[in-house]
Amino acid sequence: MKMTFNLCSLWLLLTSINSVFAADFTLPPYQKTVFKNGLVVYLLEQHEVTLIDVSIVVKAGAVSEQTSGLAKLTAEHLLLGTQDMKRPEFEQQLEFIGADIRASADLESAYVSVSFAKTDLQQVLPLIGASVLHPAFDEQEFAAQKQRALAQLKQKTESPRANIRDYFNKLLFRDHPYAHNVDGDLVAVEKMTLAEVKDFHERWYKPTNAAVVVTGDFESQKMLVLLHEIFDKWQGTTAEMQPLTSPPSPQESYVLLVNKEDATESTFLIGGLGIARNNQDFVAVSVVNTILGGRFTSWLNDALRVNSGLTYGAGSRFTSMKEAGSFGISTFTKTSTTIEAIDLALLTYERLWQEGLDEATLASAKAYVNGQFPPQYETSADLNNLLSDMFIFGFDEKFINTFVDEVESVTTERSKSIINQYFPRKNLQFVVIGQAQAIRQALQKYGKIIEIDITDVAVAIP
Question: Is 214 within 8 Å of 42 (Cβ atoms)?
């Protein structure tokens, strides 16, 4: 009994420490400025480490593209030199000083980010500015880039876990821009031209559509002077884009069966519509999902891994964008146990409505979420990502500063309304990647079957 008491006391102590740590955490002061050309600038000083992180973030993601994969290739092309500097010299200068630079795109944004020592500010900032404002658009470099992208796509095709979410987005969102595949497909990328990349850049990379985020060891007034020198001449406005609307809810259940003839296991994702990133209940939803599938001791992982041994891991998550999002339960299992695993996942999911959350389970989840929260924003790079997200998704520092209050406001009674409002229960969508011949007939009980092959280079959902 004494050991039990001590373990319980230790758990309560750790929970208390986590809560206090989280309660003391607020977003450090930052400065937001809008230049005359429309460019938004965020500056957040953090002097503990002599590093600076800079991101140029543009609302130029896959939702804006007409050719699959164009947004990502355009962003990545920005690191292949500038109009005044070929790629080898561009890379050599950054490598010599140890700067870490990267560029990519997702559904709603593109970015170029760099981390470097504060002593190299005068050298790095003009380089990253030139990479976005004046890229080289070199035909030879683009041809090599496209071949790398095609090789990565071919490799991705062989990994169900790498591409199942792309299939799920296509099934769930259908004709909505959120169904666009950020990586593109083999057909579209093969046909893509440098002229398309240049046109996409010309259309969307404008100061009225962008933000520069600087965090780390610098002085704000001096930084503003330098940023004005680099970005004041950036002019123009973006083309008109139809505002995104929330995608419609599915009206019946579908099963997208992706045949992988040599598969020995099935990978599946089950879900429906989720929530937008700026939803006022975002934190409360996260707390409830922690219990269902957001941590190692979640219901789903206990049921499918610990208790039944059907998989090495199972979970659930909400993926949120500006106007909507998705919810999905995912795992993998042997081909012979596909239906057993899906049934158990659905049965476990149904516990949210049949049993609800008790006080002890909810308290444990709240302690876990509070404990995980501050470490997400410890570094200059973490804070840079946060400010970038605030620009793209339209939320503000209230998310940080009221986080613990929001967590603590989730009661067992409120959790019921959160579950009923945000966790999709009807007309679920299923994606299963595996050996179709072995599982096709049994999958029919979940919904209308749509079957494709994993070797299909472009996916069209009727």
Answer: yes
- Three-state DSSP class for residue 373: coil
Give the number of residues written for the chain: 462
Full-model pTM = 0.91
Angle between helices 87-96 and 121-133 (to 10 degrees): 150
Burial of residue 440 (number of CB atoms within 10 Å: 0-12, 13-18, 19+)? middle
For residue 106, the cross-strand partners are none
CA 56 to chain centre: 17
Count each helix (H run) and each strand (E run) in the chain, helices first. Answer: 18, 14
Query: Comparing C-alpha atoms, which of 365, 205, 401 is closest to residue 285?
Result: 365
Q: How buried is residue 261: exposed, middle or buried, by Cβ count under 10 Å (0-12/13-18/19+)? A: exposed
Helix (H) or strand (E) holding 335: none
Q: Residue 405 class from Cβ within 10 Å (0-12 exposed, 13-18 middle, 19+ buried)?
A: exposed
Closest Cα partner for 128 from 145, 142, 114, 115?
114
* Residue 421, helix vs strand vs coil: helix
| pLDDT per residue rounded down to tens, the chain (462 residues) | 333 334 343 333 334 334 444 456 789 999 999 999 999 999 999 999 999 999 999 999 999 999 999 999 999 999 999 999 999 999 999 999 999 999 999 999 999 999 999 999 999 999 999 999 999 999 999 999 999 999 999 999 889 999 999 999 999 999 999 999 999 999 999 999 999 999 999 999 999 999 999 999 999 999 999 999 999 999 988 876 677 888 999 999 999 999 999 999 999 999 999 999 999 999 999 999 999 999 999 999 999 999 999 999 999 999 999 999 999 999 999 999 999 999 999 999 999 999 999 999 999 999 999 998 877 888 999 999 999 999 999 999 999 999 999 999 999 999 999 999 999 999 999 999 999 999 999 999 999 999 999 988 777 777
Question: Other C-beta atoms within 10 Å of 240: how many?
Answer: 6
